Predict the structure.
Amino acid sequence: MSEYAIELSGVGKTYPFFSLDNIDLKVPEGEIMGLIGPNGAGKSTTIRILMGLVHQDRGEVRVLGHSMPQGQVAAKWDIGFASEDMRPYEAMTLGWHMQFFRSVYANWDERYAQLLVKRFGLRTEQKIKGFSHGQRVKATLLLMLARRPKLLVLDEPTTGLDPVARHEILRELTAVMTEEGRSVLFSSHNTQDVEQISDTITFIDRGRIIDSMDKETYLDRWRRLRLEVPSGVTLPALPGIIGVRQDGRLAIATANAFQPDLANAYESTGARVHAIETMTLEEIFVANVEHSREEVEA
Amino acid sequence: MNPVTRELILKDLRLHKSHLLFTIAAEFLALAGVMLKTETAVVVGTSCFFIALVFAGCLLAGSNILNERKKQTLPFVMSLPVSPVQYSLAKLIATVGMFLALWLPLVAGALWMIEGKGMFPHGIIPAALIILTMPLLGFTIVMSANLVGETEGWNMASVLICNSSYGLAWYFILKVPAFTNYWGGSVAVWNSTAVSVLGGEFALIVLTLVLTFYVQSRKRDFI
């Protein structure tokens, strides 16, 4: 068996007004990967391809060692998939859904399911149509988690949830992750959620993966330098600086490969470094997307 | 059959249990009306029987197939270990099966009234079977349009075309001497016209189902 839960190599899909280009993505077993991208970036298409629901035009997809889409039935026995646009049957109760899943999955964990019912504050005898959005998301996650999958694929599961519901769901996902060997791919445009639970983070924009590395490396490498630029001084183009915004004597330089030498390099030109600031994941995400778009348009 | 496919079929039956029972009850009420034997009761009862069947058929195709997309339960079902082909097979079997549960009592009831109760002459059997098979053909077309077309537009177009075609088909049957010459007789006459039309209906049903399954199995984007 492969050491990767998910492997996408050179995957492409072309639609009339959108295309996924050359997607390479690897999620090692036991790792939580956050897939961050703006709306329409290609997160859901990527996830549908790796679930076998959309066939790629180019490239290879392997999930839990199975080639997709051909091996989707075998792969899906061990995948828990939940997406923002997924709804259980509204006319039926949560208990009916649990019974249905129990009839499909021999490894359904009823004790854990009942624990989640309590923890999420759900009622098995209530019909889904009576659930709030948050309760419905929790019910869907319950159905996915209680089958004890090796891989969880979550497509924007926290979209539209209030902070308390989001916290409960993220807490449960973090708890699930303590089980050895379980992998997660978690897509969202909410960087806070992804930052909270992910080991590695991949940025996707306009159908292309623009960056992928572990969370700590992102936070270590990205910095914002606040500079004062006296008249007559021109800021040089330095390696590791991906953008400079200057307004009169003040400038902000964004580094995606920060080294302390960068500040010295600016100082040596006559500029003054007022501050070196760390960046939040959201700021890194926005800067990364803007830089990628400028590169494409250049 | 794949066990998950079987569970999907059973799931659809459970979801539509009350819908099926209600329609079967409506059909029996209509049948009871026909049994009153007065001309008005026979016409009203038969019409009610057909309305219940056609209405139930349209609802079934819409609620069991199209609603799965509209109400976003399709991604939920497709998270199960099932391929799009297995899902389509389960939908075809479940939906056709449920419609047959409504259609077969109609055929059995009609034949019972002719054969068992002697309410109509035996000569009417070929024309009756041809007319009774029309809702099954119409349902098959509507169901396939829903499965393949995946949109409300396809559903509406197929329902309108099929339902408005029944009257036209009845009109032609009432004009064909190969039927009209024999339906007052005491013996069912299976001449070449009757066999061809009935055979054509069933051939169309099978062809529609096979084509639907073929198109579904060739789809590259299922959601």
User: Anything to note?
Assistant: The interface with chain B takes residues 48, 51-55, 69, 72-74, 76-77, 79-83, 85-92, 96, 100, 103-104, 140, 144 of chain A (CB under 8 Å). The radius of gyration of chain A is 22 Å. The mean pLDDT of chain A is 91. Chain A has two domains: 4-212, 223-278.
